[in-house]
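Before going further, it is useful to explain how the protein records used in this thesis are read. An example of such a record is reproduced below.

***
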Amino acid sequence: MRPKRGYMRAVVRLIFVVVTACAALAITLPDIANPWHPFGTLGFEANIDGAVTHIYAGLPAERAGIRVGDRILGAAGLGATRGAKSSYSMDAPGRSATLTVASPHAPPRSVTLTAVVFPRTLADNITDVAFMCSFTAFIIIAAILLMLRPAIATWAFFLYAIGQISLSA
């Protein structure tokens, strides 16, 4: 006897939703550990072109003489991701990176920086945990709604929730 067509669709939908939601959560939930295992930083932020946009006081970049307006031409040893804005955070404090830095009125120079623990406040930690918990709830609610009421609107809501991963990273 063959299973009913609606039953097979429900099983396929269940598998797709569970796998997709688990993948989305696996990508985002490791960030919730930041308050307990802070990341390392070199002490500056730069835009996608490598132009330094912010220097954190007292951190390695400031001590090395990097200034706002300098440009990072190259970086070796970074575990950083580059987006529209990059803080050049590293995997762990203590790792070193060699940067080629060009200042507006000086020739390019090489600077070796060692990552330090990024200073975080209690407010930073609470905000991160609240954001990750709400993001997790958002994905779970979207998945439950899709399982209970499969319709175009709930599929769109589920895909929207999953699509927020790129915005939260």
Remarks:
- Confidence is low (pLDDT under 50) at residues 80-84.
